[in-house]
Specification:
single chain, 241 residues, alpha+beta, Structural Genomics Hypothetical 15.5 Kd Protein In mrcA-pckA Intergenic Region, Chain A, Pseudouridine synthase, 4-stranded antiparallel β-sheet, 20% helix
Amino acid sequence: MAERLHKVLANMGLGSRREIERWIAQGLIQVDGQTAQLGQTDEGVSEVLVDGRKVILNSAIDTQFLHYHKPDDEICSRKDPEGRKTVYDHLPSLDAGRWVAIGRLDLTTSGILLFTTNGELANTLMHPRAQVDREYMVRVFGRVSPDVIERLQTGVQLDDGIARFTDIQMRPSKGSNQWVQVVLQEGRNHEVKRMFESQGLQVTRLIRIRFGPIVLDERVKKGQYRYLVKREIRELKALTR
Protein backbone atom coordinates (compact mmCIF):
# COMPACT_ATOMS: atom_id res chain seq x y z
CA MET A 1 0.00 0.00 0.00
CA ALA A 2 1.42 3.36 -1.04
CA GLU A 3 2.26 5.88 1.68
CA ARG A 4 3.10 9.55 1.59
CA LEU A 5 6.81 10.01 1.02
CA HIS A 6 7.27 12.41 3.93
CA LYS A 7 5.67 9.87 6.30
CA VAL A 8 7.94 7.05 5.08
CA LEU A 9 11.06 9.18 5.54
CA ALA A 10 9.91 10.32 8.98
CA ASN A 11 9.36 6.73 10.08
CA MET A 12 12.94 5.98 9.03
CA GLY A 13 14.14 8.59 11.50
CA LEU A 14 15.31 11.13 8.93
CA GLY A 15 13.29 13.90 10.55
CA SER A 16 9.78 14.85 11.58
CA ARG A 17 7.00 14.95 9.00
CA ARG A 18 7.00 18.73 9.18
CA GLU A 19 10.77 18.91 8.65
CA ILE A 20 10.62 16.60 5.66
CA GLU A 21 7.72 18.51 4.12
CA ARG A 22 9.88 21.63 4.42
CA TRP A 23 12.81 19.86 2.73
CA ILE A 24 10.50 18.81 -0.11
CA ALA A 25 9.29 22.39 -0.50
CA GLN A 26 12.93 23.54 -0.58
CA GLY A 27 13.78 21.04 -3.31
CA LEU A 28 16.19 19.05 -1.14
CA ILE A 29 14.61 15.67 -1.92
CA GLN A 30 14.78 13.95 -5.30
CA VAL A 31 12.82 10.91 -6.45
CA ASP A 32 14.16 8.93 -9.40
CA GLY A 33 16.07 11.96 -10.65
CA GLN A 34 13.20 14.42 -10.26
CA THR A 35 12.50 16.96 -7.52
CA ALA A 36 9.98 15.48 -5.06
CA GLN A 37 6.55 17.09 -4.74
CA LEU A 38 4.46 17.69 -1.63
CA GLY A 39 1.92 14.90 -1.23
CA GLN A 40 3.91 12.47 -3.37
CA THR A 41 3.74 8.78 -2.41
CA ASP A 42 6.38 6.06 -2.43
CA GLU A 43 4.53 4.02 -5.08
CA GLY A 44 6.86 2.88 -7.85
CA VAL A 45 9.83 4.76 -6.38
CA SER A 46 13.22 3.11 -6.82
CA GLU A 47 15.65 5.81 -5.66
CA VAL A 48 15.40 8.72 -3.23
CA LEU A 49 18.08 11.30 -2.51
CA VAL A 50 17.81 13.45 0.61
CA ASP A 51 20.14 16.43 0.25
CA GLY A 52 22.27 14.33 -2.10
CA ARG A 53 22.34 11.27 0.14
CA LYS A 54 20.81 8.05 -1.17
CA VAL A 55 18.04 6.52 0.94
CA ILE A 56 16.75 2.99 0.37
CA LEU A 57 13.03 3.04 1.16
CA ASN A 58 12.45 -0.70 1.17
CA SER A 59 15.28 -1.50 3.58
CA ALA A 60 14.06 -3.38 6.63
CA ILE A 61 15.27 -1.12 9.40
CA ASP A 62 14.16 -2.00 12.90
CA THR A 63 13.35 0.92 15.14
CA GLN A 64 16.07 1.34 17.76
CA PHE A 65 16.01 3.09 21.12
CA LEU A 66 18.77 4.45 23.35
CA HIS A 67 18.90 5.48 27.00
CA TYR A 68 21.49 8.26 27.24
CA HIS A 69 22.74 9.78 30.51
CA LYS A 70 23.16 13.45 29.65
CA PRO A 71 25.78 15.45 31.55
CA ASP A 72 25.06 19.06 32.52
CA ASP A 73 27.44 20.55 29.94
CA GLU A 74 26.03 19.27 26.63
CA ILE A 75 23.46 20.80 24.32
CA CYS A 76 20.76 18.84 22.51
CA SER A 77 21.41 20.32 19.05
CA ARG A 78 23.26 18.33 16.40
CA LYS A 79 25.76 21.11 15.80
CA ASP A 80 26.67 24.24 17.71
CA PRO A 81 28.24 27.36 16.14
CA GLU A 82 29.89 28.06 19.50
CA GLY A 83 31.65 24.70 19.44
CA ARG A 84 30.03 23.33 22.59
CA LYS A 85 29.69 19.60 23.16
CA THR A 86 26.44 18.02 21.98
CA VAL A 87 24.66 14.86 23.07
CA TYR A 88 25.02 13.51 19.52
CA ASP A 89 28.81 13.36 19.88
CA HIS A 90 28.50 10.19 21.98
CA LEU A 91 25.83 8.23 20.11
CA PRO A 92 26.61 5.13 18.01
CA SER A 93 26.67 5.48 14.23
CA LEU A 94 23.83 4.12 12.09
CA ASP A 95 23.92 2.44 8.70
CA ALA A 96 20.64 4.15 7.81
CA GLY A 97 18.43 6.83 9.33
CA ARG A 98 19.47 9.01 12.23
CA TRP A 99 19.00 9.33 15.97
CA VAL A 100 16.11 11.56 17.04
CA ALA A 101 15.88 12.84 20.62
CA ILE A 102 12.58 12.21 22.38
CA GLY A 103 12.37 15.68 23.89
CA ARG A 104 15.20 17.92 24.98
CA LEU A 105 17.06 18.90 28.13
CA ASP A 106 18.53 22.33 28.83
CA LEU A 107 22.31 22.74 28.75
CA THR A 108 22.64 22.65 32.55
CA THR A 109 20.09 19.85 33.06
CA SER A 110 21.38 16.29 33.40
CA GLY A 111 19.69 12.91 33.46
CA ILE A 112 17.83 10.55 31.19
CA LEU A 113 17.41 11.44 27.52
CA LEU A 114 15.88 8.90 25.15
CA PHE A 115 16.66 8.55 21.45
CA THR A 116 14.98 6.59 18.68
CA THR A 117 15.43 6.08 14.95
CA ASN A 118 11.68 6.63 14.42
CA GLY A 119 11.08 10.35 14.12
CA GLU A 120 7.30 10.02 13.98
CA LEU A 121 7.23 8.00 17.20
CA ALA A 122 9.49 10.56 18.86
CA ASN A 123 7.11 13.38 17.92
CA THR A 124 4.12 11.43 19.23
CA LEU A 125 5.78 10.82 22.60
CA MET A 126 6.83 14.47 22.88
CA HIS A 127 3.38 15.88 22.16
CA PRO A 128 1.48 17.12 25.25
CA ARG A 129 -1.52 15.08 24.07
CA ALA A 130 0.40 11.89 24.92
CA GLN A 131 0.57 13.01 28.60
CA VAL A 132 3.88 11.25 29.20
CA ASP A 133 5.35 11.78 32.67
CA ARG A 134 8.65 13.63 33.00
CA GLU A 135 10.04 13.27 36.52
CA TYR A 136 12.79 15.47 37.93
CA MET A 137 14.87 15.91 41.05
CA VAL A 138 15.14 19.65 41.63
CA ARG A 139 17.50 21.45 43.99
CA VAL A 140 15.96 24.77 44.96
CA PHE A 141 17.56 27.71 46.76
CA GLY A 142 15.03 29.00 49.27
CA ARG A 143 12.13 27.63 51.28
CA VAL A 144 9.49 25.61 49.48
CA SER A 145 6.48 26.23 51.69
CA PRO A 146 3.22 24.24 51.71
CA ASP A 147 1.53 27.21 50.00
CA VAL A 148 4.11 27.11 47.20
CA ILE A 149 3.59 23.37 46.76
CA GLU A 150 -0.17 23.88 46.51
CA ARG A 151 0.18 26.64 43.91
CA LEU A 152 2.61 24.60 41.80
CA GLN A 153 0.16 21.69 41.75
CA THR A 154 -2.90 23.85 41.14
CA GLY A 155 -1.19 25.74 38.32
CA VAL A 156 0.91 28.89 37.90
CA GLN A 157 0.77 31.44 35.11
CA LEU A 158 3.84 31.53 32.85
CA ASP A 159 4.45 33.66 29.75
CA ASP A 160 3.30 30.78 27.54
CA GLY A 161 0.33 29.64 29.61
CA ILE A 162 -0.63 27.78 32.77
CA ALA A 163 1.79 25.12 34.04
CA ARG A 164 1.36 22.63 36.85
CA PHE A 165 3.07 19.65 38.43
CA THR A 166 0.98 16.48 38.61
CA ASP A 167 2.98 15.46 41.68
CA ILE A 168 5.45 17.18 43.98
CA GLN A 169 7.27 15.66 46.98
CA MET A 170 9.80 17.15 49.37
CA ARG A 171 13.00 15.15 49.85
CA PRO A 172 15.55 15.19 52.72
CA SER A 173 17.64 18.36 52.48
CA LYS A 174 20.27 20.32 54.40
CA GLY A 175 21.12 24.01 54.54
CA SER A 176 19.49 26.68 52.40
CA ASN A 177 18.92 24.33 49.44
CA GLN A 178 15.94 22.00 49.32
CA TRP A 179 15.47 18.92 47.15
CA VAL A 180 12.07 18.51 45.52
CA GLN A 181 10.84 15.64 43.34
CA VAL A 182 8.33 16.74 40.71
CA VAL A 183 6.35 15.26 37.82
CA LEU A 184 4.84 17.08 34.84
CA GLN A 185 3.41 15.93 31.52
CA GLU A 186 4.85 18.37 29.01
CA GLY A 187 8.25 19.72 28.07
CA ARG A 188 8.13 23.45 27.47
CA ASN A 189 11.38 25.41 27.35
CA HIS A 190 12.90 25.84 30.85
CA GLU A 191 9.47 24.97 32.26
CA VAL A 192 10.53 23.52 35.62
CA LYS A 193 12.89 26.42 36.31
CA ARG A 194 10.31 29.01 35.32
CA MET A 195 7.66 27.45 37.54
CA PHE A 196 9.86 27.75 40.61
CA GLU A 197 10.99 31.24 39.57
CA SER A 198 7.33 32.28 39.49
CA GLN A 199 7.36 31.59 43.24
CA GLY A 200 10.56 33.56 43.88
CA LEU A 201 12.72 30.42 44.06
CA GLN A 202 15.91 29.63 42.14
CA VAL A 203 16.65 26.18 40.71
CA THR A 204 20.33 25.40 41.30
CA ARG A 205 20.33 21.85 39.94
CA LEU A 206 17.96 19.85 37.75
CA ILE A 207 18.09 16.11 37.01
CA ARG A 208 15.55 14.21 34.94
CA ILE A 209 15.15 10.80 36.55
CA ARG A 210 12.30 9.34 34.48
CA PHE A 211 10.62 9.68 31.09
CA GLY A 212 7.37 7.71 30.97
CA PRO A 213 8.12 4.16 32.15
CA ILE A 214 11.89 4.47 31.65
CA VAL A 215 13.84 5.35 34.80
CA LEU A 216 17.37 6.80 34.81
CA ASP A 217 19.75 3.84 35.00
CA GLU A 218 22.48 4.79 37.44
CA ARG A 219 24.70 2.08 35.93
CA VAL A 220 24.91 4.21 32.80
CA LYS A 221 27.54 6.84 33.52
CA LYS A 222 27.18 10.42 32.32
CA GLY A 223 28.02 10.72 28.64
CA GLN A 224 27.29 7.03 28.03
CA TYR A 225 24.31 5.10 26.68
CA ARG A 226 22.67 1.71 26.53
CA TYR A 227 20.06 0.24 24.20
CA LEU A 228 16.56 -0.22 25.58
CA VAL A 229 15.52 -3.83 26.10
CA LYS A 230 12.38 -5.29 24.50
CA ARG A 231 10.26 -4.84 27.62
CA GLU A 232 11.13 -1.15 27.84
CA ILE A 233 10.40 -0.66 24.14
CA ARG A 234 6.97 -2.29 24.52
CA GLU A 235 6.16 -0.06 27.50
CA LEU A 236 7.25 3.05 25.61
CA LYS A 237 5.28 2.20 22.47
CA ALA A 238 2.20 1.46 24.59
CA LEU A 239 2.06 5.17 25.49
CA THR A 240 1.25 6.03 21.86
CA ARG A 241 -1.85 3.82 21.57
